[in-house]
Amino acid sequence: MAIREMLHRLATAGYSIGILGAGIFDAPVGTIGLEDRSQLQGEPGSIISIKDGPLEHITIRTADTDRESMTALEQEAWFRAYQEQLDRFRPDLVYFYGGHVLEMMLSAEARRRGIPTVAYLANGNYHNPRWCHDVNLVLTDSRATSEHYSRTLNIPVTPVGAFISPERVIAERRDPRHVLIVNPSLAKGAAVAAMVALLLESRRPDILFEVVESRGNWQRVVQEVTTQAGHPRDALENVIVTPNTNDMRPVYGRARVLLALSLWWESYARVVIEALYNGIPPVISDHGGPPEAAGRAAIKVQLPEACHRPPYTVVPSATGLEPLLARIERCQDDEDHYATLAQYAYEQGKRHRPEASEQLLRMAIDPLLAKRAGDLPESES
């Protein structure tokens, strides 16, 4: 989603862009944003074209939306199409994300032709630097992730900020009353969030939670947490579950605070920035990029180190969660305190406007584009 926003902005600024992708997504619900999802169905390895405003996505069909399930034949079809695109489009720069063997072949082929490559990474899942051996420039969103990879892999990574279109997420009207949880996956702290909701269910039934499902499944998380607590259940009475949606504006309109207790390395947390745009204070774990993203609007929570280790099912005790519960209750009860945090959130959100990020992006890639690698004669490339 970040790269899509980048490409839209670059296209609007006059950059010529060709896109080659595949029918794979972070999760099957990722197809919701497509006007005609049926286009993805068909013979695996065949090619379709999907219009996206000023962009055209040349897409290789795949039998599954899961990247790990992409077959050797599908990858071969993609690589052939990639070589044809290099021959026909003759780009000055190749931009990609991902660290699988196919992506390594992608950057190696570009280097063989003398074309610079740029890679984007916005997570902490890369543990070996081989994937970027042929890459000229690595971009990320946050300083936290840049420092993380400098420390762990000794590779330079350039932060360019967030790419989120405010008009797509800012609520038209605000009636803040819910504690919002988005994408209740274990890695994003869903088990801890479920325990928080469970503890407040009888203590503060007036505080309602809204869970927006995406890759995570809230019911399974509740079953696991309540089983650990000794009273298995399928649902909590103080929680409203909202199906995955392509329009989060009404959801943000109802949110009073965001509960985003990511346990894995979260580079910047898109949902945190979307909340800031709406003046919603985020309750976050003091880990990864979210503290940088939220600034002084953050309600930071220190969780035990055991919580940050896979499979992310360790939940603090009720006593250990008491400070967190108290912070949520204060946001509900103390209007002056809440108004101050909401103002901080609005101010911090302004720092993440995509216009500034676009300037950083262009400053990073323009020197590589200036080499005009696509203009080299065939014999030199």
Task: State which percent range the strand residues make up.
Answer: 5-15%
Structural class based on helices, strands and sheet pairing: alpha/beta
Order of helices and strands: HEEEHEHEEHEEHEHEHEHEHEHHH
Global Rg: 22 Å
What topology, given as strand order, has the largest sheet? 10-9-8-11-12-13
Number of strands: 13
Main beta-sheet annotation:
6 strands, parallel
Secondary structure: helix percent: 25-40%
- Oligomeric organization of the protein chains: single chain
Low-confidence spans? none
What does this protein look like?
The protein is α/β, with parallel strands linked by helices. Helices cover 38% and strands 15% of the residues. It contains twelve helices and 13 strands. Strands 10-9-8-11-12-13 form a six-stranded parallel sheet, with helices on both faces. A four-stranded parallel sheet has the order 4-5-6-7, sandwiched between helices. Helix 2 packs parallel to helix 3, helix 5 crosses helix 6 and helix 5 crosses helix 10. It is globular. The model has no long low-confidence stretch (mean pLDDT 93).
